């Protein structure tokens, strides 16, 4: 995985803001690279591998190498669709490969070899074909900054475009994977809530009510993001705070247990020993050994 991240150096092939007529359509095709299409105005019908999406303003569509897809405008209205074509990893032929408007069955053998590997269909970089953000303003600003850089071509714009595209992709991956906006979840907000309430016990029922999520979904999504359940994470946060108090203060163990609201010194000692392999008093004595 680290090797893949070290290789990431995108090549931006096209970055443009397009206003198209109401009759505009793209017949079914397979592209060699990736495309991110942002529907700024109008409505679209988008088909990806026979799955139909009804696109509205603010929607993002991601087309991946070798995926069959088609696009057509709806309602007889013009469509504004800023979009970018790119390779996720720049290679020797990146500058020579154009944008495809054909199916693979109509391509020459050397064109078949132009298909890039699809790195956005598996973790940790998974992105779906359709994303509908509740608040697309930040994504829109990032996209138009990239388009402006590509169109104006100031000095070293190629390097700048790489960085801008990586920032945009990271933002989308975080929005989809961390925040899971379609379900109204915000794992980062839950994590902050746990840190803000480290001096008391927090129950799963409280988190479920606070963030309007089912307990099952909340635990599953949180573990997927942070590899630990929210209640286990909160216990870890509290015990880490206890370790700091044991190390850097002279507060009695009973006072630390009360401050972190463990209920009793015995409950605190059991939880601490279970996590650290030593009781709070043993842990403090070990720190004092020269």
Automatic annotation (TrEMBL):
PROSITE patterns documented for this protein: HTH_ARAC_FAMILY_1 (PS00041), HTH_ARAC_FAMILY_2 (PS01124)
One Gene Ontology molecular-function label: DNA-binding transcription factor activity
InterPro entries: AraC-bd, Homeodomain-like_sf, HTH-like, HTH_AraC, HTH_AraC-typ_CS
Database matches in Gene3D superfamilies: Homeodomain-like
Keyword set, alphabetical order: DNA-binding, Transcription, Transcription regulation
Domain HTH araC/xylS-type per the UniProt entry, residue ranges: 188-286
Full protein name: Helix-turn-helix domain-containing protein
């Amino acid at each position: 995985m680290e090797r893949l991240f070290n290789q990431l150096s995108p090549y931006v092939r096209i970055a443009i803001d397009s206003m198209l007529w109401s009759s505009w359509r793209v017949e079914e095709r397979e592209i060699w690279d990736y495309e991110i299409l942002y529907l700024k105005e109008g409505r679209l019908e988008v088909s990806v591998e026979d799955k139909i999406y009804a696109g509205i303003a603010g929607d993002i569509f991601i087309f991946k190498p070798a995926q069959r897809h088609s696009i057509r405008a709806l309602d007889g209205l013009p469509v504004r669709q800023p979009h970018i074509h790119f390779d996720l990893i720049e290679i020797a032929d990146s500058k020579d490969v154009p944008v495809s408007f054909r199916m693979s069955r109509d391509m020459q053998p050397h064109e078949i070899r132009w298909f890039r590997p699809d790195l956005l269909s598996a973790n940790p970089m998974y992105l779906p074909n359709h994303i509908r953000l509740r608040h697309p303003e930040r994504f829109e600003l990032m996209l138009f900054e990239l388009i402006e850089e590509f169109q104006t071509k100031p000095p070293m714009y190629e390097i700048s475009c790489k960085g801008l595209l990586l920032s945009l992709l990271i933002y989308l991956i975080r929005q989809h994977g961390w925040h899971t906006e379609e379900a109204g979840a915000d794992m980062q907000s839950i994590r902050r809530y746990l840190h803000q309430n480290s001096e008391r016990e927090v129950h799963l029922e409280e988190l479920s009510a606070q963030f309007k999520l089912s307990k099952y979904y909340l635990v599953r999504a949180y573990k997927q993001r942070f590899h630990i359940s929210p209640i286990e994470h909160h216990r870890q946060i509290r015990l880490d705070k206890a370790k700091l108090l044991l190390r850097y203060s002279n507060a009695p163990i009973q006072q630390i247990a009360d401050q972190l609201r463990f209920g009793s010194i015995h409950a605190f000692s059991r939880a601490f020993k279970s996590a650290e392999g030593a009781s709070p008093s043993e842990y403090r004595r070990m720190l004092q050994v020269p």
